[in-house]
């Protein structure tokens, strides 16, 4: 039997609002000692990732510049869930906006916790099969994506080589590969 117990959050306050996330401080009580300690966490909306697969068994990837790593990244479409929006609807929307591919049949790959040490939000993961290009990419003024089609059979090598190094994208793709193998 585990002796790990939940800490009790006594108070929480927003320190900084950065538009797409907030930096917060919480005061929590240790269940073993009763002592109070301050912690910091990043508040944000839930996120979605979707693996769009064409009828030719190619994954629709997007290349884009990422300001945190200051590098161009190979990723699957994804983004934030808008307030009140169903995560699956958000995933289909993000797919169309970032790649111009319409999601075919969509199924959940499950929910992940991006980083429980810092984030309270969830990542909802999906796969969409029978996707097809139907228009133009609809990027905002602060993003630019470019589509790259990758055969499904090439995914393990791209993941193992580090060509795909975004942890949440890799987790989603490994989950897909595992579930498809079962």
Write a compact overview of the structure shown.
This protein is α+β, with helices and mostly antiparallel strands. It folds into two domains: 8-43, no CATH class; 47-181, Nucleoside Triphosphate Pyrophosphohydrolase (Alpha-Beta Complex), CATH 3.90.79.
Characterise this structure:
With 182 residues, the protein is an alpha+beta fold. The protein has two domains: 8-43, no CATH class; 47-181, Nucleoside Triphosphate Pyrophosphohydrolase (Alpha-Beta Complex). It is built from three helices and eleven strands. The strands form three sheets. Strands 4, 7, 8, 9 and 10 form a five-stranded mixed sheet that branches. The chain has a three-stranded antiparallel sheet with strand order 1-2-3, with no helix packed on it. A three-stranded antiparallel sheet has the order 6-5-11, with no helix packed on it. A hairpin with a 4-residue loop joins strand 5 and strand 6 (71-75). It starts with 7 loop residues before the first strand and ends with a helix. The mean pLDDT is 96.
Low-confidence stretches at least 5 residues in length (pLDDT < 50)?
none
Give the fraction of residues assigned to helices: 10-25%
Question: Percent of residues in beta strands?
Answer: 35-45%
Amino- and carboxy-terminal Cα gap = 32 Å
CATH architecture of the largest domain: Alpha-Beta Complex
Count of distinct structural domains: 2
**Strand and helix order:** EEEEEEEHEEEEHH
Task: Tell the overall outline.
Answer: globular
Radius of gyration equals: 19 Å
Structural class based on helices, strands and sheet pairing: alpha+beta
> Would you give the CATH topology of the largest domain?
Nucleoside Triphosphate Pyrophosphohydrolase
Which sheet architecture does the biggest sheet show?
Answer: 5 strands, mixed
> At the fourth CATH level, what is the homologous superfamily of the largest domain?
Nucleoside Triphosphate Pyrophosphohydrolase
CATH class of the largest domain: Alpha Beta
Mean of pLDDT:
96
Q: Tell me how many strands there are.
A: 11
